[in-house]
Amino acid sequence: MTRRWADVAELIATQGLKGRLVARSVRGLPFLLHEGLTVHFVPPTLDGPRTASVRSVQHLGSQEYAVQFSGVSKRDTAELLTGSHCLVARADLPDDFEDIVRSSAEYLSGFLVVDEVLGDIGTISDVREMPAQDLLVVTAPGGEVLVPFVEDFIVEFDDAERVLYMDLPDGLVDPGVLDESSEKEDA
């Protein structure tokens, strides 16, 4: 089943007084917001807009872009959207979007996942696209661990060393799966 929507960007801050927002792409995707694109904001806010069209995009440097949306002309309105993600109809994305998503998953395969508290978790073997967020399938010494691939958990990408440093919530990873003897006991 093909999904109709794609999460392509996160709104991380406001910029200026005229309702511009600072956005960055998610999950290693290229920046896909462009003028005229219709965007749905999730989670929806009670008082803010739920959908808008991109009016303008300006590259700020690094991975950040200033985006102006229709109907968002004041800082107060923009502040309501800070922290939201931008969902876009897949039909409105480039024809090679599925290839981009697959290459992003392929790129992450083999990265070592290291938690700030638990240390080495294991190696990414797959990325599963889920409705809320992608899941990293991490092969640990004692089995498989599913880790939500969300910005809040990511501390640092070390592309050179192929290490993804994360700050995972307590209880997400069973410490037993980090021990090779766990897999032998289950067999």
- The shape is elongated
CATH superfamily placement of the largest domain: RimM
What is the tally of beta strands? 12
- Beta-strand share of residues: 35-45%
Specify the helix fraction band: 10-25%
**Could you please say which CATH topology of the largest domain applies here?**
Elongation Factor Tu (Ef-tu), domain 3
Query: Could you give the order of the helices and strands?
Result: EEEEEHEHEEEEEEH
Number of helices: 3
Low-confidence stretches: 182-187
In CATH, the architecture of the largest domain is Beta Barrel
Q: Provide the CATH top-level class of the largest domain.
A: Mainly Beta
Task: Please state how the strands of the largest beta sheet are arranged side by side.
Answer: 1-2-5-4-3-6
Determine the N-to-C terminus distance.
Answer: 34 Å
Structural class: mainly beta
What's the number of domains?
2
Q: From the alpha carbons, calculate the radius of gyration and give it in angstroms.
A: 19 Å
Q: Report the major sheet.
A: 6 strands, antiparallel, barrel
The averaged pLDDT comes out at 87
Q: Your description of this structure?
A:
There is one protein chain. This protein has 187 residues and is mainly β. It folds into two domains: 5-99, Elongation Factor Tu (Ef-tu), domain 3 (Beta Barrel), CATH 2.40.30; 109-186, SH3 type barrels. Helix content is 14%, strand content 43%. The chain has three helices and twelve strands; from the N terminus they run E-E-E-E-E-H-E-H-E-E-E-E-E-E-H. The chain has a six-stranded antiparallel beta barrel with strand order 1-2-5-4-3-6. It has a six-stranded mixed β-sheet with strand order 10-9-8-7-12-11. Strand 3 and strand 4 form a beta hairpin. Residues 182-187 have low confidence and may be disordered.
